Amino acid sequence: MLINVLETLVSILLIVLAFLALSSKSLIKSVMFLSSLSMLSVLAFVLMKAPDVALTEAVIGSGLVTTLFVFTLLATRKVGQKQ
Amino acid sequence: MKKFLSIVFVLILGGLIINHLASNNLIPRFGDVVLTDRVSDAYIDRDVNGGDEDVAFGESEDLESGAANTVTAIVADYRSFDTLGEVTVLFVSSLGVALLLGQSKRRIGLEFKPNFMLKIGSRALFAIILMTGVYVILHGHLTPGGGFPGGVMIASSMLLLYLADDEFRAKMRGFKVLESMMGLLYIALGLIALFISGVFLENFMDNGTLGTLFSAGMIPLVYSIIGLKVGSEISSVIDHFLSEEGAS
């Protein structure tokens, strides 16, 4: 029963976070929403008893990809912005 | 208007998909599947080639596949050839990154200056993440994880060093040598199995007792190779991403 409520909550939050990541104007906020989306999907994978997938998603989705995105955003500059 | 149209389009498409899945007789309802008819049951009981012994953790010896983690038994034993293809896909993507960004020499500077605490703290964290990666690789046949997540953990510890230090550059030549050596070693292991037992990448070593560290024959060896290969590949991808054109 409790697990069912938790699963429903997680899936609703996943959809909300995906919508926020798509629609937010600031790129860095979008990356943060994407990171929390993959963190929540780790929880969803654990609830669905797939620890292997959860581990891979935790390492790649919320660790590596987020850091690479943030690094790229730090390294790029807007047109006209000074060095 | 555009948003309204896209919402209507998504609703119609989603309705069609759900309606089709609900009225499809080929897909059984959730919970109604008889697992003994499915091939996954044979993988769990380790009787793909026939036989019906019970599998007990810590007791069963010399099973078809000695890995306690069933996912590992499929990925690195029953379907090891698919894993070779997967490793090749990762190799090709790393090759593409190297072709596109290989000319870049100088490291991209960071917008902020890392302070003393960040530098020292990330050195400590680097060791912990590296150890976790090695643990995940070596226990791939017992617990969730294995070569791919463990290798990415090794690469993310390298990424942490890049983040914490402005001047840090890993020695990429060593990583490239390691990567190609590991790729060759994987194929060599497959060829050795071909000569010994007649099937490419067949698990020819002793399977041991299910659930112990030194068990499952070739699987820990294969996963160490994959882990080192994935780790060095993704580290070199990160290095290419964080460097830009110009003289060093």
Description of the structure:
The complex is a heterodimer of chains A (83) and B (248). By secondary structure, chain A is mainly α. Chain A has one domain. Chain A is built from three helices and no strands. In chain A, helix 1 (2-23) runs antiparallel to helix 2 (27-47) and helix 2 packs antiparallel against helix 3 (51-75). The longest helix of chain A has 25 residues, at 51-75. Chain A is elongated and about 55 Å long. Chain B is mainly alpha-helical and 248 residues long. Chain B has one domain. Chain B has eight helices and two strands. The longest helix of chain B has 26 residues, at 172-197. Chain A binds chain B through residues 51-52, 54-56, 59-60, 63-64, 67-68, 71-72, 74-75, and chain B through 69, 71, 108, 110-111, 136, 144-146, 148-149, 152-153, 155-156, 159, 162-163, 234, 238, 241-242, 244.
Would you kindly provide a brief summary of this structure?
Chain A has 83 residues and is an all-alpha fold.
